[in-house]
From TrEMBL:
The chain crosses the membrane at residues 9-30, 50-71, 78-103, 109-128, 161-178. It is a multi-pass membrane protein. GO terms for molecular function: chromate transmembrane transporter activity. Its main location: membrane. This is Chromate transporter. Keywords: Cell membrane, Membrane, Transmembrane, Transmembrane helix. InterPro entries: CHR_Transporter, Chromate_transpt. Belongs to the chromate ion transporter (CHR) (TC 2.A.51) family. It is found in: Cell membrane. One of its GO terms (cellular component) is plasma membrane.
Amino acid sequence: MNKKVLIKLFLSTLYLSAFTFGGGYVIVTLMKKKFVDEYHWIENDEMLDLVAIAQSAPGAIAVNGAIVVGYKIAGIPGVMVAIFATVIPPFLIISVISMFYIIFRENRFIAYMLEGMQSGVGAVIASVSFQMGTGIVKKGFLNIVIMATAFFLSFCLKINVIYIILLCIVAGVVKTLLSKNVEESK
């Protein structure tokens, strides 16, 4: 395995993890920008698949994203490097915050800063959702129906996301099997 790739993967993932606020969806967006748009290590369609895997697997989405991206780029060594780089910044930050919790809790400036970051996080998640959604829309009408149905079930009917994910897995399997049958009959 190329040591330069592992070092670049480590530094990129460490940087992304250190400066990402707002949860796993934000880091996945930044991973897309870094590994798809900047480094061209992963194709855009592949990144959509990797994000789906990261979201579907149990655990923190940032770590799951690091696992699938690290594996895609450099196999098992890439997984180890990406996980380690992703976990270090939050571990250190939370350790420091826990030592000074009372000071942080009562500091009005920090409360305002965190409130402002929430707005930025919302904008980043909306941007990524739009970018990834347009990639799905380009793949066909059925994908639009699945995406709209999942949104409706979650947002309007308040159905648990776990059930929606399971339903989408079934829809994806059925769609794939049907498309293979159509190809074989040609």
